[in-house]
Amino acid sequence: MMFADPFDALFNLQRALDGRLASEWLHDQTASQGPFPPINVFQHGDDILAIIELPGVEKGNLEIQAKENTIRIAGKKAISYPEGASVHRRERTFGEFDRTLSLPVQLDADRIKAEYRDGILALHLPRSERDKPRNIKVG
Amino acid sequence: MTSAQELQVQKKRELENKEETTIPVRIFVPVADIYEAENDLTVIMEMPGVDKSNVDISVEDGVLNVEGRLDLTKYQGLQPLYTEYNIGHYSRSFRLSSKIDQNKIAAEMKDGVLSLKLPKVQEAKPRSIQVS
After folding, report:
1. How do beta strands B89-95 and A62-67 pair?
2. Which residues contact A1 (CB under 8 A, 6 or more apart)?
3. What CATH number has the domain bearing residue A49?
4. CB contact under 8 A, B78 and A49
5. Which residues of B touch A6 (CB under 8 A)?
6. CB contact under 8 A, A118 and B50
7. How distant is the Cα of A21 from the closest Cα of chain B, in angstroms?
8. What local confidence, expressed as pLDDT, does residue B2 receive?
9. Residue of B7, B35, B74 with shortest CB distance to A88
10. What is the ipTM of this complex?
11. Which domains are present in chain B?
Protein backbone atom coordinates (compact mmCIF):
# COMPACT_ATOMS: atom_id res chain seq x y z
CA MET A 1 0.00 0.00 0.00
CA MET A 2 1.17 3.46 -0.74
CA PHE A 3 -0.17 5.03 2.46
CA ALA A 4 2.97 4.69 4.52
CA ASP A 5 4.22 8.01 5.82
CA PRO A 6 1.37 10.12 7.19
CA PHE A 7 -0.15 7.23 9.16
CA ASP A 8 0.48 8.68 12.58
CA ALA A 9 -0.90 12.08 11.65
CA LEU A 10 -3.97 10.56 10.00
CA PHE A 11 -4.57 8.12 12.84
CA ASN A 12 -4.52 10.91 15.41
CA LEU A 13 -6.80 13.03 13.25
CA GLN A 14 -9.27 10.17 12.78
CA ARG A 15 -9.36 9.65 16.53
CA ALA A 16 -9.89 13.35 17.16
CA LEU A 17 -12.74 13.42 14.63
CA ASP A 18 -14.35 10.37 16.21
CA GLY A 19 -14.05 12.01 19.61
CA ARG A 20 -16.24 14.90 18.51
CA LEU A 21 -18.72 12.80 16.55
CA ALA A 22 -22.17 14.26 17.14
CA SER A 23 -20.87 16.38 20.00
CA GLU A 24 -23.18 18.68 21.92
CA TRP A 25 -21.63 21.76 20.37
CA LEU A 26 -24.22 22.21 17.65
CA HIS A 27 -26.88 19.96 19.19
CA ASP A 28 -30.17 21.18 17.76
CA GLN A 29 -28.77 24.02 15.73
CA THR A 30 -28.49 22.38 12.32
CA ALA A 31 -32.17 22.79 11.55
CA SER A 32 -32.45 22.14 7.86
CA GLN A 33 -34.36 20.49 5.11
CA GLY A 34 -32.04 17.52 5.20
CA PRO A 35 -28.80 16.29 6.69
CA PHE A 36 -26.91 16.54 3.39
CA PRO A 37 -24.12 17.64 3.04
CA PRO A 38 -22.21 16.26 6.05
CA ILE A 39 -20.34 18.96 7.93
CA ASN A 40 -17.29 18.99 10.17
CA VAL A 41 -16.66 22.08 12.28
CA PHE A 42 -13.22 23.03 13.54
CA GLN A 43 -11.76 25.76 15.65
CA HIS A 44 -8.86 27.53 14.00
CA GLY A 45 -7.35 30.04 16.38
CA ASP A 46 -10.15 32.46 17.23
CA ASP A 47 -12.19 31.55 14.17
CA ILE A 48 -14.37 28.70 13.01
CA LEU A 49 -13.74 26.55 9.93
CA ALA A 50 -16.48 24.34 8.50
CA ILE A 51 -15.38 21.61 6.07
CA ILE A 52 -18.09 20.06 3.92
CA GLU A 53 -17.76 17.10 1.55
CA LEU A 54 -19.49 17.87 -1.74
CA PRO A 55 -17.82 15.83 -4.47
CA GLY A 56 -19.01 16.40 -8.01
CA VAL A 57 -20.88 19.65 -7.44
CA GLU A 58 -20.22 22.41 -9.95
CA LYS A 59 -19.05 25.62 -8.29
CA GLY A 60 -21.81 27.50 -10.11
CA ASN A 61 -24.45 25.21 -8.57
CA LEU A 62 -23.45 26.13 -5.02
CA GLU A 63 -25.21 28.84 -3.12
CA ILE A 64 -23.93 30.06 0.23
CA GLN A 65 -25.65 32.68 2.32
CA ALA A 66 -24.70 34.09 5.67
CA LYS A 67 -26.63 36.15 8.15
CA GLU A 68 -25.55 36.85 11.71
CA ASN A 69 -24.62 33.42 13.05
CA THR A 70 -26.44 31.39 10.41
CA ILE A 71 -25.04 29.88 7.21
CA ARG A 72 -27.13 28.35 4.46
CA ILE A 73 -25.59 25.91 2.00
CA ALA A 74 -27.82 25.01 -0.92
CA GLY A 75 -27.26 23.58 -4.34
CA LYS A 76 -27.65 20.82 -6.81
CA LYS A 77 -25.58 17.82 -7.74
CA ALA A 78 -26.13 16.50 -11.23
CA ILE A 79 -24.93 13.25 -12.77
CA SER A 80 -25.42 12.33 -16.39
CA TYR A 81 -25.18 8.86 -17.82
CA PRO A 82 -24.37 8.33 -21.49
CA GLU A 83 -27.05 6.79 -23.64
CA GLY A 84 -26.66 3.23 -24.77
CA ALA A 85 -24.14 2.22 -22.12
CA SER A 86 -24.93 -0.72 -19.89
CA VAL A 87 -24.75 0.18 -16.23
CA HIS A 88 -22.79 -2.18 -13.98
CA ARG A 89 -22.92 -0.16 -10.78
CA ARG A 90 -24.76 2.95 -9.73
CA GLU A 91 -23.75 4.00 -6.23
CA ARG A 92 -23.40 7.76 -6.57
CA THR A 93 -26.34 9.90 -5.57
CA PHE A 94 -27.52 13.19 -7.01
CA GLY A 95 -30.20 15.74 -6.37
CA GLU A 96 -30.79 18.95 -4.51
CA PHE A 97 -29.71 19.95 -1.05
CA ASP A 98 -30.40 22.80 1.33
CA ARG A 99 -28.95 22.96 4.79
CA THR A 100 -28.82 25.69 7.37
CA LEU A 101 -26.29 25.83 10.14
CA SER A 102 -26.61 28.07 13.18
CA LEU A 103 -23.42 28.47 15.13
CA PRO A 104 -23.35 29.23 18.86
CA VAL A 105 -20.98 32.15 18.23
CA GLN A 106 -21.51 35.49 16.51
CA LEU A 107 -19.95 35.67 13.05
CA ASP A 108 -18.55 38.54 11.08
CA ALA A 109 -20.70 37.86 8.00
CA ASP A 110 -18.78 40.31 5.81
CA ARG A 111 -15.51 38.51 6.26
CA ILE A 112 -16.77 34.96 5.59
CA LYS A 113 -14.77 33.22 2.88
CA ALA A 114 -15.76 30.12 0.94
CA GLU A 115 -13.36 27.91 -0.98
CA TYR A 116 -14.27 24.89 -3.10
CA ARG A 117 -11.49 22.56 -4.16
CA ASP A 118 -11.22 18.81 -4.90
CA GLY A 119 -14.87 18.34 -3.94
CA ILE A 120 -14.43 19.95 -0.50
CA LEU A 121 -16.12 23.18 0.52
CA ALA A 122 -14.26 25.09 3.23
CA LEU A 123 -16.07 27.93 4.95
CA HIS A 124 -13.88 30.31 6.92
CA LEU A 125 -16.13 31.82 9.54
CA PRO A 126 -14.48 34.64 11.48
CA ARG A 127 -15.92 35.42 14.88
CA SER A 128 -17.15 38.94 15.23
CA GLU A 129 -14.88 41.18 17.30
CA ARG A 130 -17.56 41.86 19.89
CA ASP A 131 -17.98 38.13 20.42
CA LYS A 132 -14.34 37.52 21.26
CA PRO A 133 -13.33 37.28 24.90
CA ARG A 134 -11.72 40.33 26.45
CA ASN A 135 -9.20 40.53 29.21
CA ILE A 136 -10.67 42.28 32.21
CA LYS A 137 -8.31 43.96 34.60
CA VAL A 138 -9.16 43.74 38.27
CA GLY A 139 -9.11 47.34 39.40
CA MET B 1 -33.48 12.88 -14.33
CA THR B 2 -35.62 14.17 -11.51
CA SER B 3 -34.16 17.25 -9.91
CA ALA B 4 -36.59 17.35 -7.01
CA GLN B 5 -34.91 14.36 -5.40
CA GLU B 6 -33.40 15.30 -2.07
CA LEU B 7 -29.86 14.22 -1.39
CA GLN B 8 -29.23 11.92 1.53
CA VAL B 9 -25.99 11.39 3.39
CA GLN B 10 -24.29 8.17 2.33
CA LYS B 11 -22.50 6.38 5.12
CA LYS B 12 -18.85 5.93 4.28
CA ARG B 13 -17.87 2.31 3.83
CA GLU B 14 -14.60 1.21 5.32
CA LEU B 15 -12.15 -0.91 3.39
CA GLU B 16 -11.88 -4.51 4.56
CA ASN B 17 -8.38 -5.53 3.76
CA LYS B 18 -6.87 -8.97 3.62
CA GLU B 19 -3.84 -7.75 5.49
CA GLU B 20 -4.27 -5.43 8.41
CA THR B 21 -2.15 -2.35 8.77
CA THR B 22 0.03 -2.13 11.86
CA ILE B 23 -1.52 1.19 12.85
CA PRO B 24 -5.34 0.86 12.91
CA VAL B 25 -5.85 3.74 10.49
CA ARG B 26 -9.07 3.63 8.51
CA ILE B 27 -9.24 3.63 4.74
CA PHE B 28 -12.52 4.27 2.95
CA VAL B 29 -14.09 2.75 -0.14
CA PRO B 30 -15.11 5.45 -2.64
CA VAL B 31 -18.62 5.16 -4.07
CA ALA B 32 -18.49 4.24 -7.74
CA ASP B 33 -20.51 4.24 -10.92
CA ILE B 34 -19.45 1.84 -13.64
CA TYR B 35 -20.85 1.54 -17.11
CA GLU B 36 -19.80 -0.25 -20.21
CA ALA B 37 -20.03 0.92 -23.78
CA GLU B 38 -19.02 -0.90 -26.94
CA ASN B 39 -15.39 0.20 -26.87
CA ASP B 40 -14.67 1.05 -23.27
CA LEU B 41 -15.54 0.76 -19.64
CA THR B 42 -16.09 3.94 -17.59
CA VAL B 43 -15.43 3.98 -13.86
CA ILE B 44 -16.34 7.06 -11.83
CA MET B 45 -15.37 7.35 -8.18
CA GLU B 46 -15.95 10.03 -5.57
CA MET B 47 -12.86 10.86 -3.54
CA PRO B 48 -13.42 14.27 -1.96
CA GLY B 49 -10.24 15.92 -0.71
CA VAL B 50 -7.90 14.05 -3.03
CA ASP B 51 -5.74 16.09 -5.40
CA LYS B 52 -5.14 14.62 -8.86
CA SER B 53 -1.44 14.22 -8.09
CA ASN B 54 -2.27 11.86 -5.22
CA VAL B 55 -4.15 9.23 -7.23
CA ASP B 56 -2.63 5.86 -8.19
CA ILE B 57 -4.33 3.74 -10.84
CA SER B 58 -3.15 0.34 -12.02
CA VAL B 59 -4.49 -2.71 -13.81
CA GLU B 60 -2.78 -5.95 -12.92
CA ASP B 61 -3.93 -9.50 -13.74
CA GLY B 62 -7.33 -8.17 -14.70
CA VAL B 63 -7.82 -6.24 -11.47
CA LEU B 64 -8.22 -2.48 -11.46
CA ASN B 65 -6.73 -0.83 -8.38
CA VAL B 66 -7.40 2.78 -7.48
CA GLU B 67 -5.87 4.50 -4.47
CA GLY B 68 -6.29 8.11 -3.46
CA ARG B 69 -4.30 9.84 -0.78
CA LEU B 70 -5.85 12.62 1.23
CA ASP B 71 -3.85 15.78 1.77
CA LEU B 72 -3.68 16.24 5.53
CA THR B 73 -1.77 19.53 5.56
CA LYS B 74 -4.96 21.58 5.53
CA TYR B 75 -6.03 19.92 8.78
CA GLN B 76 -2.97 21.10 10.69
CA GLY B 77 -3.71 23.31 13.66
CA LEU B 78 -7.44 22.60 13.60
CA GLN B 79 -9.37 21.57 16.70
CA PRO B 80 -12.51 19.58 15.91
CA LEU B 81 -15.61 21.00 17.62
CA TYR B 82 -18.35 19.02 15.96
CA THR B 83 -18.05 16.25 13.35
CA GLU B 84 -20.42 14.27 11.19
CA TYR B 85 -17.99 12.28 9.08
CA ASN B 86 -14.51 10.91 9.32
CA ILE B 87 -11.80 11.28 6.75
CA GLY B 88 -9.13 9.01 5.36
CA HIS B 89 -7.42 7.73 2.29
CA TYR B 90 -9.42 5.87 -0.34
CA SER B 91 -8.86 2.48 -1.93
CA ARG B 92 -10.95 0.25 -4.15
CA SER B 93 -10.35 -2.65 -6.54
CA PHE B 94 -12.48 -4.21 -9.24
CA ARG B 95 -11.99 -7.44 -11.13
CA LEU B 96 -12.56 -6.48 -14.75
CA SER B 97 -14.79 -8.59 -16.93
CA SER B 98 -13.14 -7.63 -20.18
CA LYS B 99 -9.56 -7.16 -21.28
CA ILE B 100 -8.36 -3.58 -20.94
CA ASP B 101 -5.61 -1.89 -22.87
CA GLN B 102 -3.67 -0.59 -19.90
CA ASN B 103 -1.56 1.83 -21.92
CA LYS B 104 -4.60 3.72 -23.09
CA ILE B 105 -6.38 4.29 -19.77
CA ALA B 106 -7.46 7.91 -19.52
CA ALA B 107 -8.04 9.51 -16.12
CA GLU B 108 -9.57 12.82 -15.21
CA MET B 109 -10.06 14.34 -11.76
CA LYS B 110 -12.56 17.12 -11.22
CA ASP B 111 -14.21 18.39 -8.04
CA GLY B 112 -13.12 15.29 -6.13
CA VAL B 113 -14.55 12.93 -8.73
CA LEU B 114 -12.23 10.58 -10.62
CA SER B 115 -13.35 9.50 -14.11
CA LEU B 116 -11.55 6.59 -15.75
CA LYS B 117 -11.97 5.47 -19.32
CA LEU B 118 -10.69 1.96 -19.78
CA PRO B 119 -10.50 1.05 -23.49
CA LYS B 120 -11.12 -2.60 -24.30
CA VAL B 121 -8.50 -4.45 -26.32
CA GLN B 122 -9.54 -5.46 -29.81
CA GLU B 123 -10.21 -9.13 -29.11
CA ALA B 124 -12.49 -8.36 -26.19
CA LYS B 125 -14.93 -6.40 -28.32
CA PRO B 126 -18.04 -8.23 -29.41
CA ARG B 127 -18.06 -9.30 -33.02
CA SER B 128 -21.09 -10.03 -35.08
CA ILE B 129 -20.79 -13.32 -36.88
CA GLN B 130 -22.47 -13.89 -40.15
CA VAL B 131 -24.28 -17.13 -40.70
CA SER B 132 -23.28 -18.33 -44.11
Report:
1. unpaired
2. B21, B67, B91
3. 2.60.40.790
4. yes
5. 72
6. yes
7. 5
8. 45
9. B35
10. 0.80
11. 26-76+85-121 (2.60.40.790)
